[in-house]
Amino acid sequence: MIEMNQQLAMSVSPYHLTSREPPAMASLLLADTCFTLLPTPDGGRDAAELAAAEAPSYQGMIESWRWSVPLWESGVLAPAPEAPGDARAAAARIDSDDRLAPLRPLMNRSVFEDDSVYLRAVSSDVLRGGPDPALLIPLCAGLDTTSARSGLVTARSEAKSVAQRAELKLSRRVAACVVPVLLQADGDRLLEAREELATELAELRSALLTITDAARIAPEVPAEPAHKDRLLEAARLYTAAFDAVRLELTRCDDPDDARVLFAPISIQLMTMPADAALLSSASAASALGAAPRRRGQPAQTTAIAEQIGTLVAAVCKPMGRGTRG
Q1: pLDDT tens-digit map of 205-224
Q2: Pairing between strand 153-157 and 9-11?
Q3: How far is the C-alpha of 231 from the C-alpha of 175, rounded, in Å?
Q4: Which residues have a Cβ under 8 Å from the Cβ of 117 and sit 6 or more positions away?
Q5: Does the N-terminal or the C-terminal CB of the chain have fewer CB atoms within 10 Å?
Q6: 3-state DSSP helix/strand/coil percent for the chain, to nearest 5?
Q7: Global pTM?
């Protein structure tokens, strides 16, 4: 189990990491440490290297993460070791839990039963942005389970899909703030920003941690007004510090490199059941006619989710397309 005492630890989807979407870029700057689901076979590193040699798509996925190598090397980005097993458990639960029956026509359980098939399928799907729900749903649900169990704040994108809108119905808003982040940057520039803004980031992380820890312990209790005020003040000070160095942070060192862009990001802190991804996906599948809706499906939570704990999410929405300094 991941333990991050007195530090803001977040989880980010491998799909978001590959495409450098706002949830990934925001969490890699704002959190002390970010964890992601790194697809690996049960045999560990040796088995992963062997499978990679036989699966070009796995090599392609790792290559697509090359921009983030400095973040891995510095410990800012790390694998969540329990997440692959939790993803397999989520796939098995869809098979066994009748409340998730609407998802079964979308699933391919055999993918999770063979390491080489699993690595090829997951790697290809991550590279393509997640068009296969048979992989996307269990992987996201597995990372959520790990996050709830370990007290990680999961980074979410704004609700656009039917499933995401269904998830909002299971969620409760806790607090919010707006802060600028680098929307387009490589790992070295993110590390530079973390160093330049270290003092302000430390206070912002502490304010976020105070609110998210309280929400995890007592999800039905509104956030303390003083804690919200502290978050807004920390966001204000961080924004002022970011503005003071944004020309340096968005400079172009090499004309051949992609432009470094920044934008204000709205961060909505939410609580939800640990299995919200499964419940909302099942609801969406029913709404879209993938399977008949079963009577008695729970609208809110399940005993399994209650055993794991509450999931705290940071929904990241860019307030603009991104600009240079």
Answers
A1: 999 999 999 999 999 999 99
A2: parallel
A3: 9
A4: 110, 111
A5: N
A6: 55, 15, 30
A7: 0.90
